[in-house]
Input
Amino acid sequence: MSSLIRLSALGLVTAVSLTRITSGAMQVTETFTANTDLYWEGVSNRTAPNNYGWSATDMTGTAVNPPGPDGIPGNADDGVATGAGEFGGMLSRGGPVPSFYGFDVGSIDPTEAFNVSGVIRSNAADGAFFLGYSTGADSFPDINGDLKNFIGVLVNDGKDVFGFLYTRNRNRTGAELPTLDLTIGAPTPFGLAYTPPSGGVGTSSLRVSVGNASATANFENGFAGITDPLTRFGIFPARNGTSTAEVYFDDVTFTSDNAIPEPASLGLLGLGGLLAMRRVRRA
Output
């Protein structure tokens, strides 16, 4: 697709502007001002001890603006922080299996570039979670803690940042990025920028930005070639143990083949849900 779409939801009123770009998928900006549970996918994200997804809170505040799609703050394409409404909450290592909350991005091949940016606030030096592109709940860690089909970051103990690529066979490549530790309790701009292998073969990389610092995780030659197309952008807890992370995100821009539904579409989704409920009650 060839449109840059930025959508800002307020209730069911959505402001849409289009900027033509030369190639690639869309960049979708989600402000979380309205409840995204209607069109984001949730799997056991509200089952105790988990409690994460859309929230009416304002943990990230309005003092820190989100960076533009490049993930680097202080540039002309920076966004403007919005008020209450964000996504996140409590993600437990000891919760139900699998667990996930995310957006259907269509199909992003590991040989294609993608970007993510926004504002993050980690409230506890505990737990661990993954944020990035995956195949949704199907990517959830196995008993050994290994994912499949994932490109993004692991944040451990609420602050330690790792960049990882996991293949369809649950093999991984990546590294810790110790210069990017999050400050607990502080809203911080962040960004992910994935560079695919040149010509579809060779080494790929993920540049991660936290505040004004950036670092790159390089992925081994050929790993992108044995990773399936990524269909979801989202978050899920790590596995093994019982510790719980508390984290919030707002004003997130991410690469997607699919746009956020417009108000009419949201209405149809809601009507479809009501009709489904009526059918169940009559059965």
Remarks:
- The radius of gyration is 18 Å.
- Confidence is low (pLDDT under 50) at residues 1-22, 277-283.
